[in-house]
Amino acid sequence: MNLLICCSSRDEIPSDFLNIMDEIGRILQNKYRLIIGGCSSGMMARIIPYFKNYEIVTLPIYEEKIPNNSSNKIIYCSNTMERTNNLYQLADIILLMPGGIGTLAELFSTLEEARTLKNNKKIIIFNYKDYYKPVLDMIKKQEDLKFKDKDDNYYYIISNITELEGVLS
Description:
With 169 residues, this protein is an alpha/beta fold. The chain has helices at residues 15-28, 42-47, 80-90, 101-117, 133-144, 161-168; strands at 2-6, 33-36, 54-58, 73-76, 93-96, 122-126, 156-158. The protein has one domain (2-168): Rossmann fold (3-Layer(aba) Sandwich). The protein has a seven-stranded parallel beta sheet with strand order 4-3-2-1-5-6-7, with helices on both faces. The chain is globular, with a radius of gyration of 15 Å.
């Protein structure tokens, strides 16, 4: 089963956001084939070592930041839209961790693809330390104003490791 983890690639973020990836890595290690969209820095760098089998979907501009491990597959894409589509298509489960603009793009693209295609991908938004609260409030407002159906909740919102284990079991 392929697990896509969308997360920050920045090293400068608060250490607790990096450390949560170690906790996630310990409980998920080698239970899934990791799909990740970037490079070996930030939260991405923290999660990759826990998986023997992974695939990186990236852009050539990040080539110098990719872990040097020839036993794992690297897919190069010509632009971020192609990259996001490849990530989505490869994934069975999508775990959205805190991140920057790229992660937000992946979050909204993932939600829209799942809503439109009505496939059975398991989508998990990890609202660690209420990181996604403003986004989730906006989605709730869309529901309240009828811009979004209330029954379109085809994703899980979690805030801790125990809830992650429950959703994945």
